[in-house]
UniProtKB/TrEMBL annotation:
It comes from the Bacteria. This is Cupin. Gene3D superfamilies: Jelly Rolls. InterPro entries: RmlC-like_jellyroll, RmlC_Cupin_sf.
Length: 61
């Protein structure tokens, strides 16, 4: 789990699995720019984060 703050940028490599979401008491806006081609999907969606996983989020400052 990684804590990100306003204006942080997170770069992920092709094929890197990840999840994102706000802590229970925070708002998050997510903007993604994806590159795909004829051989690769732009997005492969994983399972949603559970309520229990959200509850385990680290405390925010």
């Amino acid at each position: 789990m990684e804590t990100i703050r306003p204006d942080d940028r997170v770069l992920l490599g092709a094929g890197e699995e990840h999840r994102h979401g706000a802590a229970p008491n925070r708002l998050m806006v997510h903007l993604a720019i994806n590159e795909g081609d004829h051989d690769h999907d732009v997005v492969h969606w994983l399972d949603p984060v559970t309520d229990e996983e959200y509850a385990a989020a680290p405390a925010t400052r």
